[in-house]
Amino acid sequence: ELRQLIYDTELNAVVINTKEPFGPRIYPELKVLVDELHKEGLWVIARHVVFQDDELAERQPELSLKRASTANWKDRGGHGWVDPANREVWEYNLDIAQKTLELGFDEINLDYIRFPTDGDLGNIIYPSWDGLKLKEEVLRDFLRWFRQNLRSQAPYAILSIDVYGETFLRDFAGSTGQRMTTLAPEVDVVSPMVYPSHYRSGNFGYTNPATQPYGVVYGTLEKGQLLFANAPNTIVRPWLQDFHLGAQYTPAMVRAQITATTDAGNHNGWMLWNPKNIYSESALLKE
After folding, report:
1. Which of 120, 133, 159, 231 could join 184 via S-S bond, C-beta 3.0 to 4.6 A?
2. Cβ contacts of 202-211, under 8 Å, gap ≥ 24
3. 216 and 204 in contact (C-beta within 8 Å)?
4. pTM above the 0.90 mark?
5. Which of the listed CATH numbers 1.10.10.60, 3.30.70.20, 3.20.20.80, 3.30.1390.10 matches domain 2-283?
6. Cα-based angle 211, 214, 218 (whole degrees, multiple of 5)
7. Which residues contact 30 (CB under 8 A, 6 or more apart)?
8. What is the pLDDT of residues 1-46, one digit of tens each?
């Protein structure tokens, strides 16, 4: 059904999960699928979850964030995390990404490229991060190292990162380490998750931002442009909301976000997110 949706509409790319919190999902049969998608003229993106990693944290607990009791620390959703500053964690993720590119993927899209933001944050013990280096510097160094090593194998590989939409609203890293002026120069594409449902009441003057898809997306992308002065070659390609949260999302509301993206001067595409892969076909232009 998804492939038919792509054939029938303006969509021209697919995102496939290749590493999730429960481990990598790369297998030889994927190459057949990627080759088929390429024959159909599609751009194929590998979504790669980085530091939220249950599988690695359980298998190698010395890499896991800890609690004072020495037990593995978990976030509010029960997921384990590994230390963003640990070189072995870096190498593990690079190895998976390199194997992913060997299957023919065009782009590595790093998700959870951040420090934890929920759960008992005050009780985290990091095995490698000393707390002195800024979080944004830890992530910057990882991305710089990661892209350099990825390009040594695949010179034309594209590296993108998913970041919170709020990172476009001010030049500040917060608890995540996702500071755009620091991270944007290290990647080819930045994909802010500008889901209106995720904005706080009062953002852009809206009582319920979820009901204002155009204004939230336009306002975020327009404001974020100021943070890319030192990254003129980095593309912004947002994630847009196509799911019900904060409001019943109609096709018109999905289309409003697409329109806002281009109206804000972003002509490098957009991506739709629905956790069940059920998308609003009538929001899309027909081919």
Report:
1. 231
2. 203/169, 208/246, 208/247, 209/246, 210/245, 210/246, 210/247, 211/246, 211/247
3. yes
4. yes
5. 3.20.20.80
6. 130
7. 16, 18, 103
8. 788 999 999 999 999 999 999 999 999 999 999 999 999 999 999 9
